[in-house]
Amino acid sequence: MPGLTAWAGITQLANVGEGDTVLVNAAAGPVGGTVGQIARIKGAERVVGIAGGAEKCAIVTDTYGFDACIDYKIDGWEAELKKALPDGLSIFFENVSADMAITALDNARTYARGVLCGLAAGYQVQSQDRVPNPLPMGTIIGKRAQLFGLVVYDFYSKWDEFAGEAGKWIQDGKLAFAEDREEGLENAPALFERLMNGQNRGKAVVTVSPEKA
Ligand SMILES: NC(=O)c1ccc[n+]([C@@H]2O[C@H](COP(=O)([O-])OP(=O)(O)OC[C@H]3O[C@@H](n4cnc5c(N)ncnc54)[C@H](OP(=O)(O)O)[C@@H]3O)[C@@H](O)[C@H]2O)c1
User: Fold this and answer.
1) Does the CB atom of residue 30 touch ligand 1 within 6 A?
2) Based on the domain organization, do 30 and 111 belong to the same domain?
3) Which residue has the CA at smallest separation from atom 46 of ligand 1?
4) To the nearest whole percent, how much of the chain has pLDDT over 90?
5) Among 44, 89, 130, 206, which residue's beta carbon has the most beta carbons within 10 A?
6) Residues with Cβ < 8 Å from 204, sequence gap 6 or more?
């Protein structure tokens, strides 16, 4: 499912191709890491990730082959991001928050495309604590940006096309993925907590053997 989400957003909505510069956050995760790799396979010129911490950034560059990864937990990361995108971005893929999307838009070229996929930073915030994020209409208009809302369920009819492409890329060693596995339903809550704290390392998967189910 995260693979289909990544594939759908970057190929079907953003229509990534040669010459694109792509920015994606939660880049060490299953969606973000796959977005960057598919972008590269489809001819993107430059792929930059944002992730939390040096260990995650190492996965993004060393395992997933991004050109650069910015650790947003370090002071001054926004200046580092600008340096990593000297000519701006043509596509951003948003997994985390409206604030991050605004930062991406600040670095966008004119006619940039943005895929709005997820709001991971907001999933644990109580509704009464949510701060409304003003949509930067002037920036969107000024950049002539196109924003696409992504819902993966709309793309299940394209599963075979996705699986055909992705399966070949995995076989050819062009597409890497990681799973954070636990055995047994009793270990699901701890894994879920790690996921919600951003501490998972890959797609969170719980294996339940039939005799224990
Ligand atoms: N639109 C759709 O149909 C669709 C389908 C599937 C998934 N999604 C969305 O796609 C996004 C990525 O999914 P994924 O499965 O690949 O997730 P993931 O990357 O494994 O986990 C979410 C990541 O968000 C980052 N994050 C940033 N701020 C956070 C905060 N305050 N609390 C928790 N995490 C925070 C963390 O990475 P860092 O530490 O690197 O910041 C965390 O690891 C999620 O937003 C998910 O909901 C959307």
Assistant:
1) yes
2) yes
3) 118
4) 84
5) 89
6) 180, 182, 191, 192, 194, 195
Distance (Å, rounded) from C-alpha 180 to C-alpha 195? 9
Ligand 1 and 202: CB distance under 6 A: no
Residue 209 CB neighbour total at 10 angstroms: 9
pLDDT at 201: 83
Distance 29 CA to ligand 1 centre (A): 7
**Which of 28-32, 90-94, 202-206 is the least confident region?**
202-206
Over the stretch 29-70, which tens digit does the pLDDT of each residue have? 999 999 999 999 999 999 999 999 999 999 999 999 999 999
Ligand 1 geometric centre to CA of 91 (Å): 18
**Could you tell me if the CB of 3 is within 6 A of ligand 1?**
no
Q: Is 152 in the pocket of ligand 1 (CB under 6 A)?
A: yes
Q: Structural domain of residue 139, as residue ranges?
A: 2-171
CATH number, residue 53: 3.40.50.720
Looking at 155, 171, 187, the residue that finishes a domain is 171
User: Residue 100: which residues within 8 A CB-CB, separation 6 or more?
Assistant: 25, 50, 72, 94, 121
Asked whether residue 86 carries a pLDDT value surpassing 90, the answer given is yes
Ligand 1 pocket, residue 58 CB under 6 Å: no
Residues 10 and 97 occupy one common structural domain: yes
How many domains does the structure of the chain reveal? 2
Same domain, 20 and 98: yes
Using the mean position of ligand 1's atoms as its centre, give its distance from the Cα of residue 18 in Å: 27
